Amino acid sequence: MADATTSTDIRLREGSSIAQRLVMAGSAAAVALCFTPGLFTHDVLEVIISVVALLVGTGFVVGIMMAPAVVWIITPNEILIGKQRPFGKLQTRVVGKDNISGLQVPGSKRVKARFQLVFTLASGERLTSPPISDVTHVHDTVTRIATQFDVPNVEAPRNPLDASNPEMHLGEPLEAFSVRDIRIVALIAVALSAVPYAYKLWRGWPPSHVDILLLPLGALAAFAVHRYANLVTGAFWIIRESDIRVERLWGDGTPRVDHIEGCDVKTISVDRRGRSEDEHCIVTIRLRSGRRFRSPRIGSRLEARAVGAEIVRRLGIAAESSKI
């Protein structure tokens, strides 16, 4: 369940669903099983590698399947904490309002717009909540909790995606690679492609067709690095009340700017771009012209939905166009 900013209680969740656990555990098991043929060889090194791979794979499977699901329900007078493992009993804890002496809201090192509540109890114990899923209302949520628990001097976190900001920022401001760095990478590509050919000549051996083929491939790789390196810098989104400014770089490092207005949007949706729905979800906007814009990585599906909903509100996108 997501944070409820309009109800009395605030609910926070952490932990993958059973379906997600099965997919991740199945993938880890499949990779580990690929090493099983090495167990039936007479090579000691292959046997050791296979055993280590199976042990590591088993550890991943056990860790994924046994990770607990955590639910926090923050009411005006207390915090209800529930913790349950897939095959265990539900563990509950109640923290009363009078036991709370401090509150901090540190950001995540991995995901820029991810915040957790860290409560300090009168006993000195620190409790860390699951992430706040509605990342567009972190300031309001923290202010509300600090007020209802009478916690003084709570520093509001700096949140680039907060709806209270006139401009919401997705990603980082772009900066082109220096000419020096691009030349160094291009030279490395050429050198790596020439190493097998030069080694054969040095030893007096005739170069093979593969060694000769690597030379033009290295030259092509160097040309691609020189011409298109800045395309991998990504995009920087500035979400305003009536439009989105999308900043990107051309291959030569010159800036490219696009503007998205609500009347141009055909559909807007939340998609996964990566391995996990907990870390790699983005907002995808498709225009009536056929163009498609993918946002920088946001975080979990709930966090991406919160950002998508705020984009829908700011651009005035019709409900039938939203797949948030």
Strand percent estimate: 25-35%
Report the principal-axis shape: globular
Radius of gyration: 26 Å
The stretches of 5 or more residues where confidence is low (pLDDT under 50) are 1-6
Number of separate strands = 15
Q: Characterize the largest beta sheet: strand count, sense, and whether it forms a barrel.
A: 4 strands, antiparallel
How does this structure look, described?
- The structure is a single chain.
- The protein is α+β, with helices and mostly antiparallel strands.
- Among the domains are: 179-231; 234-323.
- Helix content is 34%, strand content 25%.
- It contains six helices and 15 strands.
- The chain has helices at residues 18-33, 44-66, 138-148, 179-203, 209-228, 301-315, and strands spanning 10-14, 69-74, 78-84, 91-96, 100-104, 116-121, 126-131, 168-170, 236-239, 243-249, 255-261, 265-272, 281-287, 292-294, 322-323.
- The strands form four sheets. The protein has a four-stranded antiparallel beta sheet, with no helix packed on it. A four-stranded antiparallel beta sheet has the order 8-9-10-11. The protein has a four-stranded mixed beta sheet with strand order 14-13-12-15, with helices on one face.
- A hairpin with a 5-residue loop joins strand 10 (243-249) and strand 11.
- The radius of gyration is 26 Å and the shape is globular.
